[in-house]
């Protein structure tokens, strides 16, 4: 656990208060956001140029906002921080001055001048330090190992050996092309991922977060476990827009976790429910978080197709969480929300129905096959229009703060995605993905199940302590070609599988970044919160296997196959939820829980015979439970 903690130990996040430095940082952040909107929409620069400027701007801000250590001054940057921030600005000036030359030179043919060596390796070093401060030693160590492998791998013997890569070759590809730092992860971060985060931030500023909480409370607050069910619904809705499990925990959890604790929820349970609900937001259409945009770029699958394929698995994820919250609440006798916290659905909808319009706009834009950038822009335009209509909550100051907050919330993601780009560039230069594929095939052989188990575990390990987009990008580069090439899965199946496990890494012990965020609010052990969250969302860990073996869950089959896959997977999710909690209306016998769990796995397995065995086990478990309940009821009068 100590090593896991060290892997995610980051620098202190600074709060500048209300002084001059805070105003300067806020103004700079708004300027970065304005540049990003301009670059993503109207700029005629090529993508490499736009991304270089974006990263240098973000690094300038990052070194002031994130200290070098946990114990750094939380209110004032050090001299080293100012030097690194100034160095980032110097890199910006250098690359802006040489932008045309960077765009026109021939990679690996035109020699690099001395100044390009200095600023190229300087930017490389700044990106490494940014990654260390924002996501900890874990990802940074991976980058350093890959860099060392790039430069020294020609000395190896055996399958890991690769051709000679000089320092000039390494620098040229890593910094001066779109195959390294400025690869797909940072490109997506600098364009529509940034815009979608702004969409979620401004929706919250306009009052959308409060509306989603109120509407969730109106429909679920009076049920047993009402506060937890409100957390599930509101966190899922907001998490879909924020694209970050950690950000969602901090935003909605600051309301839902204290509410649950006040009504008697254990701190560990309150934090676990929030983490499970927030994590699922990153797989919930129509936005699905920022990692899905990287998937669209990696695979060239239209974004709208990914959204459609993700509908059923996301609904089943939340069915699992909702059922387990209900079962646990009934088992513990947890009450509903107080009546003074619950409003009637009619007044809530009358006052806030306009907040549903941005989601409708997003769905319309997706259906019309607009690019993700324009989908985000249409969404932003709709929010601004709604905010103007609800003028009582609108102010230029709130808009200014929301735009700046977007940039600040993207700082850590930018540092992680730059590091992920370096890893992907190193993998591409050395052909490491092919070597990993050979190793995976050697270990798993022809066993598809073992291959998927290893791929899921590796994705979770890669995702420890880093944002979901970076975790997915690394897994896609290393494991995606193996799943599609050696084992014949479609691009959609393989990459959604990796995306799901990259998302789940945010709540999987021992390095569960979302659970660490919840721990501070709940006042409980983060590992205990992570374990509770995993139990609440236990079906999510088998759902990817369901759509790998039954693509009908992704709506990728004929109608009978789709219906069959959805029905059997839904039944499996319900059985797993009941088995995990061991309670429906009363405690379930151990034999019944075992029968339900094994039966669910058979229902998810391919083939008619496996499905029949699963159904038989489920029926047998239910029959045993009924007889056990009847026997207990018959003994009650005798006891009297």
UniProtKB/TrEMBL annotation:
A GO molecular-function term, please?
Answer: transmembrane transporter activity
Q: What does this protein do?
A: Part of the tripartite ATP-independent periplasmic (TRAP) transport system.
- Whether Transmembrane counts among this entry's keywords is yes
Q: What is this protein called?
A: TRAP transporter, 4TM/12TM fusion protein
What InterPro entries does its record include? DctM, TRAP_DctM-Dct_fused
**UniProt keyword annotations, A-Z:** Cell inner membrane, Cell membrane, Membrane, Transmembrane, Transmembrane helix, Transport
Gene Ontology CC entries for this record: plasma membrane
Domain TRAP C4-dicarboxylate transport system permease DctM subunit: residue ranges: 126-560
Question: Coiled coil where?
Answer: none
């Amino acid at each position: 656990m100590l090593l896991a903690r060290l892997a995610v130990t980051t620098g202190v996040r600074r709060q500048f208060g209300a002084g001059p430095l805070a105003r300067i940082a806020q103004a700079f952040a708004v300027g970065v956001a304005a540049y990003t909107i301009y670059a993503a929409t109207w700029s005629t620069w090529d993508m490499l140029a736009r991304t270089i400027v974006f990263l240098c701007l973000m690094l300038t801000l990052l070194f002031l906002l994130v200290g070098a250590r946990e114990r750094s001054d939380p209110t004032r940057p050090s001299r080293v921080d100012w030097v690194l921030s100034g160095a980032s600005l110097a890199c910006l000036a250098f690359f802006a001055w040489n932008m045309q030359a960077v765009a026109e030179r021939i990679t690996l043919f035109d020699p690099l001048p001395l100044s390009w060596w200095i600023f190229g390796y300087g930017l490389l070093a700044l990106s490494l330090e940014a990654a260390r401060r924002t996501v900890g030693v874990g990802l940074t160590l991976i980058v350093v190992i890959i860099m060392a492998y790039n430069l020294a791998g020609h000395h190896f013997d055996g399958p890991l050996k690769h051709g000679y890569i000089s320092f000039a070759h390494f620098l040229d590809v890593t910094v001066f092309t779109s195959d390294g730092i400025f690869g797909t992860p940072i490109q997506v971060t600098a364009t529509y991922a940034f815009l979608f985060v702004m969409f979620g931030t401004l929706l919250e500023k306009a009052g959308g977060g409060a509306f989603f909480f109120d509407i969730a409370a109106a429909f679920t607050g009076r049920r047993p476990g009402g506060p937890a069910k409100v957390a599930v619904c509101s966190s899922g809705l907001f998490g879909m827009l924020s694209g970050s499990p950690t950000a969602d925990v901090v935003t909605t959890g600051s309301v839902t976790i204290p509410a649950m604790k006040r009504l008697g929820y254990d701190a560990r349970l309150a934090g676990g429910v929030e983490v499970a609900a927030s994590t699922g937001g990153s797989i919930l259409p129509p936005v699905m978080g920022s990692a899905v945009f990287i998937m669209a770029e990696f695979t060239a699958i239209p974004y709208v197709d990914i959204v459609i394929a993700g509908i059923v698995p996301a609904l089943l994820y939340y069915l699992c969480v909702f059922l387990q919250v209900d079962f646990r609440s009934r088992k513990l006798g947890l009450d509903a929300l107080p009546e003074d916290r619950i409003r009637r659905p009619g007044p809530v909808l009358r006052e806030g129905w306009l907040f549903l319009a941005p989601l409708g706009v997003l769905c319309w834009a997706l259906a019309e096959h607009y690019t993700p950038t324009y989908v985000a822009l249409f969404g932003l335009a709709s929010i601004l229009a709604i905010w103007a209509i609800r003028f009582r909550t609108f102010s230029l100051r709130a808009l200014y703060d929301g735009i700046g907050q977007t940039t600040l919330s993207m700082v850590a993601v930018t540092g992680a995605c730059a590091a992920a780009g370096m890893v992907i560039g190193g993998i591409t230069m050395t052909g490491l993905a092919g070597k990993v594929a050979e190793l995976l095939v050697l270990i798993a052989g022809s066993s598809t199940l073992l291959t998927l188990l290893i791929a899921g575990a590796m994705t979770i390990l890669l995702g420890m302590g880093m944002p979901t987009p970076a975790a997915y990008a690394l897994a896609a580069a290393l494991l995606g070609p193996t799943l599609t090439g050696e084992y014949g899965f479609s691009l959609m199946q393989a990459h959604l599988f990796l995306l799901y496990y990259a998302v789940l890494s945010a709540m999987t012990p021992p390095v569960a970044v979302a659970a660490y965020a919840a721990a501070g609010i709940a006042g409980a052990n983060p590992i205990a919160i992570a374990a509770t969250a995993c139990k609440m969302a236990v079906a999510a860990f088998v759902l990817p296997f369901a759509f790998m073996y039954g693509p009908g869950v992704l709506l990728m089959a004929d109608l009978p196959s789709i219906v069959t896959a959805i029905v059997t997977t839904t039944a499996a999710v319900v059985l797993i939820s009941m088995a995990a909690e061991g309670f429906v209306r009363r405690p379930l016998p151990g034999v019944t829980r075992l029968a339900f769990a094994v039966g669910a796995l058979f229902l998810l397995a391919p083939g008619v015979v496996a499905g029949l065995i699963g159904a038989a086990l489920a029926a047998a478990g239910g029959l045993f439970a009924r007889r056990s309940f009847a026997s207990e009821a018959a003994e009650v009068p005798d006891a009297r």
